[in-house]
Design a protein that fits this description.
The chain has 649 residues and is an alpha/beta fold. It folds into 3 domains: 3-309, Histone deacetylase domain (Arginase, Chain A), CATH 3.40.800; 310-359 and 480-486 and 498-548 and 612-642, no CATH class; 382-479 and 581-604, Rossmann fold (3-Layer(aba) Sandwich), CATH 3.40.50. It has helices at residues 29-40, 57-60, 66-74, 80-87, 99-118, 149-161, 177-183, 257-267, 285-299, 315-328, 414-421, 430-447, 463-476, 528-546, 563-574, 590-600, 616-629, and strands at 2-7, 48-51, 122-127, 166-170, 189-193, 235-240, 275-279, 387-389, 397-398, 454-458, 482-487, 502-508, 513-516, 519-523, 550-555, 581-586. Helix 7 (177-183) links the parallel strand 4 (166-170) and strand 5 (189-193). The protein is elongated, with a radius of gyration of 26 Å. The two termini are 50 Å apart. It binds N-(4-aminobutyl)acetamide and zinc ion. Residues 172-174, 241, 243, 280-281 line the site of zinc ion.
Length: 649
């Protein structure tokens, strides 16, 4: 099951026929240039290519009024003067004689994509469309949008496929007020949008774009921003606007194309990986095309490149996240722990209607610098195909570079392995040493780029020692930042230097402790809520801050993580680790090894099941750890209200 790409050249027909600086950026070239780069990079050819079909009038009626559909149909026959006159009745809209055809293709493409994913013809996909959709309302065009493609797709998934939980993630730089209005009282569609707001000074200048808009009636709590796990959606629709990308003349933001690879991969952990992205905005042609390629590549299963730039959140972003947490707290158990609920600070500064728009700044976009000289990064990322190391005496190491299954590679020479094993008596005997020889082969295979990741099983008593040798060998081979996540009763090697090259995170049945900036121990979470806040609020921000070039995950004795938890842990950590993962498990857990191998291969993790709230001891422990660590690890500030009041708030 691959990635669907839905497109039709006819959607390049509509264009602006008169002078209107506001609308001039929504051009046919947006699609043409993005498609061209997809072709050039060989990405189109890797997709399941679907020709977009027109949505029927009945389908448009899922969201729009018959009168509005008739009005748009009528534009096919209008002359330029009448088109301009009608366009002026809406905010930032232009009609062209081909608009109705294009808009029906755009809507049809979104429906086709959902059908492909929900029938299993594709695992995920992208619809490259115009006109965009998320500003369009039941009976109004708005912001270049004619029919609301994503809202139609969500309604179609509800009505034709019987889904009950659909997550819409809107990463366009503008608030998709159209989608918000359509679903504001519907708890089956959770609408999450991030957007430029500027206290109401950014288009579309709406009070209801602020964090305190949470939905109405039964839909309260199902509008705006919140961490995306607890809802446990069956389908993820993305309003994929790339006007939030660097260089865009509208958004004037700094998100590099790589950001969209990371966002996409994080979303792939949800809904069994059923992610449908539909193009919205994006007006800088080069930045748009790069960002579309990053999204498609990630949907296809390629590892995202590292995020360039410093891993430090800015103050205003922290304040925005805090407002959202406060506004959503009444509706979501995961925000309700007393120690983590912040005060609501109003961010809308005027109630007197529209404020003056901001002055536009000169956008700058430079293509990413050529790859860094770091020897570990000199070779391109290995294809996603984990090696599996089995410990049965006659089993070889299976390394399968370039996606081709090779004959097992030979393990290390016994004498050489013995030298590395020397300090550990437990590794001296046959079976443990045989396993170690294979693990060492795997470490070398990952670090010289033959494989991206791997999983190894060792006899239980030898696990700790094997881990120690794995770490020493990795550092010896030049790993600069080694992240080790050790779950269960495993001790950090005593002689490991605390020099910032390794970050050691223990998750085990002990008290929370920060033994140093690079040695953190946290208690084992019991409930789903505790687990999610541990992963999303601590482990992931630390991993993003550290930017490891190798991640070692070990599930040791009585680790206490059920398989779906371990699967989610590995899936989420793949993103900041860019897939370079070595997982170590005990050989008595073949089922766990199998699940982790599937995760390393890019399969979506299973659902965690019903939500249970973290104990207050556990929540306190996380708050304590964050307080200890956030001065050094700034990414942790995103996960919680600032422990010290920020100046000016
Ligand atoms: C889809 C989209 C933006 C409209 C901006 C009007 N619309 N100033 O990005
Ligand atoms: Zn936009």
């Amino acid at each position: 099951m691959g990635t669907a790409l839905v497109y039709h050249e006819d959607m390049t027909a509509a264009r602006l026929l008169w002078d209107d600086p506001e609308c001039a950026i929504e051009t046919p070239e947006r699609l043409a240039v993005a498609m061209e780069l997809l072709r050039q990079r060989g990405l189109e050819q890797r997709c399941l290519q679907l020709a977009a079909r027109e949505a029927s009038e009945a389908e448009l009626g899922l969201v729009h009024s018959p009168e509005y559909v008739a009005l748009v149909r009528g534009t096919e026959a209008l002359g330029v003067g009448a088109l301009q006159e009608l366009s002026a009745q809406f905010d930032a809209v232009y009609f062209h004689p081909s608009t109705y055809h294009c808009a029906r293709l755009a809507a049809g493409a979104a429906l086709q994509l959902v059908d492909a994913v929900l029938t299993g013809a594709a695992q995920n996909g992208l619809a490259l469309v115009r006109p965009p959709g998320h500003h369009s309302q039941r009976a109004a065009a708005n912001g270049f949008c004619v029919f609301n493609n994503v809202a139609l797709a969500a309604e179609h998934a509800k009505q034709r496929h019987g889904l009950r939980r659909i997550l819409v993630v809107d990463w366009d730089i503008h608030h998709g007020q159209g989608t918000q209005y359509i679903f504001e009282d519907d708890p089956r569609v959770l609408y999450f949008s991030w957007h430029r707001y500027e206290h109401g000074r950014f288009w579309p200048y709406l009070r209801e774009s602020d964090a305190d808009a949470v939905g109405r009636g039964h839909g309260r709590g199902f509008t705006v921003n919140l961490p995306w796990n607890q809802f446990d959606p069956e389908l993820v629709l993305v309003s994929a606007g790339f006007d939030s990308a660097i260089g865009d003349p509208e958004g004037q933001m700094q998100a590099t194309p790589e950001c969209f690879a990371h966002l996409t991969q994080l979303l792939l952990a949800l809904a069994g990986g059923r992610v449908c992205a539909v193009l919205e905005g994006g007006y800088h042609l080069e930045s748009l095309a790069e960002s579309v390629c990053m999204t498609i590549q990630t949907l296809l299963g390629d590892q995202p490149p590292p995020l360039p730039g410093p891993m430090v959140p800015c103050q205003s972003a922290l304040e925005s996240i805090q407002s959202v947490r406060a506004a959503q707290a009444p509706h979501w158990a995961s925000f309700q722990h007393p120690a983590t609920v912040p005060m609501l600070s109003p961010s809308y500064s005027s109630s007197e209607g529209r404020l003056l728009p901001l002055l536009p700044a000169e956008p700058v976009y430079k293509a990413a610098a050529p790859s860094c000289p770091d020897p570990l990064h000199a070779h391109p990322l290995a294809p996603v195909c984990p090696a599996v190391v089995l410990t049965a005496p006659d089993a070889a190491v299976h390394l399968c570079p370039r996606g081709i299954r090779q004959k097992g590679a030979a393990p290390w020479e016994e004498a050489e392995a013995e030298a590395w094993a020397r300090p550990h008596e437990v590794l001296a005997q046959g079976e443990a040493l045989a396993a170690l020889r294979k693990v060492l082969r795997l470490v070398d295979g990952i670090l010289d780029g033959q494989v991206n990741s791997g999983i190894a099983a060792t006899p239980a008593p030898a696990l700790s020692a094997t881990l120690d040798v794995t770490i020493r060998r990795s550092l010896f081979l030049g790993v600069q930042r080694l992240l080790c996540v050790a779950v269960g009763q495993l001790d950090r090697p005593l002689d490991l230097a605390d020099d910032g090259r390794t970050l050691w995170l223990s998750i085990r049945d002990k008290q929370a402790a920060t033994l140093s900036t690079f040695h953190v121990s946290m208690p084992l979470p019991g409930a789903t809520g505790g687990f999610l806040s541990c992963i999303l609020g601590l482990v992931l921000p630390l991993a993003y801050g550290f930017q490891p070039d190798l991640l070692v995950v070990v599930l040791g004795p009585v680790h206490g993580l059920q398989d779906p938890y371990a699967a989610l842990l590995v899936t989420l950590l793949r993103v900041p680790a860019r897939g370079r993962i070595l997982a170590l498990v005990e050989e008595s857990k073949p089922q766990l090894a199998g699940i982790l191998a599937r995760m390393l291969h890019g399969e979506a993790p299973p659902s965690l099941g019903p939500f249970s709230k973290a104990s207050s001891e556990f929540a306190q422990a996380l708050v304590y750890l964050r307080g200890q660590l956030e001065l050094h690890w700034k990414m942790l500030q995103v996960a919680a209200p600032p422990s010290v009041a920020s100046p000016g708030s």
